[in-house]
Each structure stands twice: as C-alpha cells, then as structure tokens.
Amino acid sequence: MGVSAKVDGKRYWVGNLNYLKAPENIEWSEQASALEQQGYTCVWCADEHAILGLVALNDQIKKDAKSTIAQLKTMGKTVSMLSGDRIQVAQSVANQLGVDHVTAEVLPNDKAQHIKSLQEQGLVLMVGDGINDAPALTQADVSIAIGSGADVSVASADVVVLKATLAPIVEAIQLSKRTQTIIKQNITFALLYNAFMVPLAMMAKVTPLFAAIVMPISSIIVIANAARLRKNQE
Q1: How confident is the model at residue 22, as a pLDDT?
Q2: Mean pLDDT across the stretch 167-178?
Q3: Residue of 102, 62, 61, 64 whose CA lies nearest to 81
Q4: Residue 104 DSSP label
Q5: Which of the two residues, 198 and 72, has the higher pLDDT score?
Q6: Do 147 and 161 meet the contact criterion of CB atoms below 8 Å apart?
Q7: Cβ atoms of residues 79 and 31 within 8 Å
Q8: Mean pLDDT of 108-126
Q9: Could you tell me which residues come within 8 angstroms of residue 212 by beta carbon, excluding any fewer than 6 positions away?
C-alpha cells in the first residue's frame, strides 16, 4: 500500500516495501528491521532507481492498555490483536502489552474474516477505533468503539466509549454479567411467585384485598432488585 506522484517529471513512491518499484537496499532493510523490532512502522520513500529513505512512525500505546488486558486475562478472556502493521511491529507491541495472539499485515476485510473464524470458537468482542476496523466491528458479536476514533467505527459499534481510555471495556463486561444475574433472579422470583399465588387464587384462598396488596409488593421487589445495578455503578 502507498501513494505515487510525479514531481518535476520524475516519479516517486511512498509506502510499504512491497509497493516500491526500486530494488531492495540491504543497509536500509537492516535499519528498518531494527526499528520495527522496537515497535516502529516504517514508511519507505523511493524513486524509479533507488530507495531514498524511510520515515519511522510509532503509535502511542494507551496508558491503561496493559492493565486492561491484564484484567481481561484475569477474567478468563483470551486477548487477540489484529493489525495492518508488519509482524515485527505488531509482535513488539503485543509483547509489551501481554497479548495472547497476534495476527499482522491484515487488510480491513480480512479482519472481518478473522473475527468470523474466531466466532466458531465462541462469542467475540471486538474493540477498535479506526476506519479499517469498521467491517470487523460489524462482524463481531459485541463491538466497542473508542469515541475519539473514526466516525465510521463509532457508527459500526454496539457500544461507544466516550473517553480515550480502555478501562470502561472491563466495566462493560462486568456490568453485563451483573445484569444477566439480576435478570435471572427476577425471572426466578416471578415464576415462583406466580407458581405459588395463582393456585391459591384459583382455589379462592386469597382475598381481593390481600391480592391487591401483594401484587404491587412483588413488582416493587423486582424493581428494587434491578435498581441494585445503578447502586453498584455509583
């Protein structure tokens, strides 16, 4: 991938090494390899005859990325990273963060296919913020976009984190688990209540006054139980 343009009648290329038309230079390649192992992405510059140089770019890792991944692994989650960068760059970042699996040099549509293959093993949660993450966010069972990212990724996600931080991902998973627990508790209570009270009502063992009192109380219990979610968030 890259771009090409003519300047003063001479054509130049800027992009990854495979895009360049110039022959590979061993000296430049060694420098690029050393930079990539440190987590830098190399953008090459060349004309028709030779490589002219390279620009080393380095993404800033979010401060809470490592702690968030550690928490996810503590919760029993497997963390994978999909990246369009070269394998050396992606592996360097993964080693710093403690990521379980790395897939590098992935095109946007290939990310969606990779998510689809992971779904054969279970539910997949995808987190992304770039334009090229949109297809994968759409494919995932649950998707989270970082609000500071591209608009298309935000539009494709189920959940949007408004701040440029990853900590809410863990909070969202914990909240979803508590929500499921509350739902199961309320359904169980409602079934037991009806299983006990309906037969009594059919046998005329319950007076209208008693039923009028007990029915709203049962609803209040369900609402109060659900309200515990908000209390936990505070």
Answers
A1: 63
A2: 90
A3: 102
A4: -
A5: 72
A6: yes
A7: no
A8: 90
A9: none
What whole-number distance in Å separates Cα of residue 233 and Cα of residue 231? 5
Q: pLDDT tens for residues 69-79? A: 999 999 999 99
Average pLDDT over residues 128-140: 88
How many residues in the chain? Answer: 234
Enumerate the H helices of 65-207 as residue ranges: 65-74, 87-97, 108-118, 134-139, 151-156, 167-202
Write down the pLDDT at residue 234: 55
Instruction: Give yes or no for a contact between 81 and 111, defined as CB atoms under 8 angstroms apart.
Output: no
Distances (CA, A) of 167 to 70, 71, 154, 188: 11, 9, 17, 32
Joined tokens for residue 157: 């996600």
What is this structure's pTM? 0.71
Residue type for position 29? S
In whole angstroms, what is the distance from residue 30 CA to residue 223 CA? 65
Mean pLDDT of the chain: 86
Cβ-contact 158, 172 below 8 angstroms: no
The distance from CA 55 to its chain's CA centroid, rounded to whole angstroms, is: 29
Please give the pLDDT value at position 73: 94
Instruction: Give 4-68 as a DSSP string.
Output: EEEETTEEEEEE-GGG--SPP-HHHHHHHHHHHHTTPEEEEEEESSSEEEEEEE-PPPPTTHHHH
